[in-house]
């Protein structure tokens, strides 16, 4: 079986008999997939409108609408008061009333009307509407209480989270400060060691410079090679000298080395 839906709309309308006064009515609706029922009261009198499946199909066909779309549109306008819509609850004779409301479709302003009959049991109709409103008010109050408690819990949790976040931020700042101080200490120590090594390298480089100078001086003091050898090489290259000359040259070279 389909599950019915319920709604109750409160309307403030001009009084059909006293134009300067406002008539307050409540429209309780029970919605089904293919039909719906209306119960209306102004607090004193009451009316009912039972719309059958055949009535809905006929009206939907007149407006070129599917039944589901017709029901959905009627529920929207009779479940909640729509801005821009003109609602009326006028006298239709013989104690009957005509409920109407307007809406726009494709730029055209349309009006739906349903005739309501006097309730055969006004007390029961009024009691049903009143009970529905009371139950709805109780459910709404309970929902408000639940939402309020949930909000309070959320507020407490939020404050805890903020406190933890602030604590974490402070700890992070302290940790970073401590790490930075240790880093500076290590960096300064490394700089001191590098400075000592640089000084040692400078000292070592100075001693090495002196030894190099001494080597250069000793090299400058070394006797030059005998120039006679060059002449011998030239004689050999030219091919003019004899073997005796070569032998004499060699003997002179040996004597020169021996004298030295």
3D structure, described in words:
Pfam families: XRCC4, XRCC4_CC. One of its GO terms (molecular function) is DNA binding. It is found in: Nucleus. Belongs to the XRCC4-XLF family. XRCC4 subfamily. Keywords: DNA damage, DNA recombination, DNA repair, Nucleus. With 260 residues, the chain is α+β, with helices and mostly antiparallel strands. The chain has a domain at 5-120: Dna Repair Protein Xrcc4, Chain: A, domain 1 (Beta Complex). The protein is 58% helix and 23% strand. The protein is built from five helices and seven strands. The chain has helices at 53-62, 67-79, 122-221, 228-238, 243-259, and strands spanning 5-14, 22-31, 36-41, 46-51, 87-93, 96-105, 108-118. It has a seven-stranded antiparallel sheet, with helices on both faces. A hairpin with a 4-residue loop joins strand 2 (22-31) and strand 3 (36-41). The longest helix has 100 residues, at 122-221. The radius of gyration is 58 Å and the shape is elongated. The termini are far apart.
Question: In summary, what is this structure?
Answer:
With 260 residues, the chain is α+β, with helices and mostly antiparallel strands. The chain has helices at 53-62, 67-79, 122-221, 228-238, 243-259, and strands at residues 5-14, 22-31, 36-41, 46-51, 87-93, 96-105, 108-118.
- Could you name the CATH homologous superfamily of the domain at 5-120? DNA double-strand break repair and VJ recombination XRCC4, N-terminal
Averaged pLDDT: 80
User: Tell me about the biggest sheet?
Assistant: 7 strands, antiparallel
> Which percent bin holds the helix content?
55-70%
Proportion of beta-strand residues: 15-25%
Per CATH, the class of the domain at 5-120 reads Mainly Beta
Order of helices and strands: EEEEHHEEEHHH
Over all CA atoms, what is the radius of gyration? Answer: 58 Å
The helix count comes to 5
Report how far apart the termini are: 137 Å
Report the CATH topology name of the domain at 5-120.
Answer: Dna Repair Protein Xrcc4, Chain: A, domain 1
Task: Indicate the CATH architecture of the domain at 5-120.
Answer: Beta Complex
| Lateral arrangement of strands in the main beta sheet | 1-2-3-4-7-6-5
Low-confidence stretches: 208-246, 253-260
General shape: elongated
How many DSSP-defined strands? 7
Helix/sheet category = alpha+beta
GO molecular function: DNA binding
Pfam family, one: XRCC4
InterPro entries: DNA_repair_prot_XRCC4 (IPR010585), XRCC4-like_C (IPR014751), XRCC4-like_N_sf (IPR038051), XRCC4_CC (IPR053962), XRCC4_N (IPR053961), XRCC4_N_sf (IPR009089)
Family: Belongs to the XRCC4-XLF family. XRCC4 subfamily.
């Amino acid at each position: 079986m389909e599950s019915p839906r319920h709604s109750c709309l409160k309307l403030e309308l001009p009084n059909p008999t006293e134009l300067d006064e406002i008539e307050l009515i409540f429209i309780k609706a029970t919605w089904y997939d293919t039909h719906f029922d209306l119960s209306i009261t102004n607090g004193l009198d009451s009316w009912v409108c039972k719309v059958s499946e055949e009535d809905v199909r006929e009206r939907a066909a007149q407006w070129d609408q599917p039944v589901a779309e017709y029901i959905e549109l009627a529920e929207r306008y009779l479940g909640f008061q729509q801005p821009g819509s003109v609602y009326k609850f006028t006298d239709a004779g013989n104690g009957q009333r005509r409920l109407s409301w307007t809406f726009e479709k494709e730029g055209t302003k349309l009006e739906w009307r349903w005739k309501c009959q006097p309730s055969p049991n006004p007390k029961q109709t009024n009691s049903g509407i009143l009970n529905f409103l009371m139950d709805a008010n109780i459910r709404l109050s309970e929902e408000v209480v639940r939402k309020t408690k949930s909000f309070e819990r959320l507020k407490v949790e939020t404050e805890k989270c903020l406190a933890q976040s602030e604590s974490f931020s402070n700890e992070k700042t302290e940790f970073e400060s401590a790490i930075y101080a240790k880093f500076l200490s290590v960096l300064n120590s490394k700089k001191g060691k590098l400075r000592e090594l640089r000084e040692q390298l400078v000292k070592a480089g100075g001693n090495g410079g002196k030894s190099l100078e001494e080597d250069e001086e000793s090299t400058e003091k070394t006797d030059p090679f005998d120039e006679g050898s060059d002449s011998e090489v030239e004689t050999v290259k030219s091919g003019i000298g004899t073997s005796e000359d070569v032998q004499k040259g060699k003997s002179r070279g040996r004597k020169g080395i021996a004298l030295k």
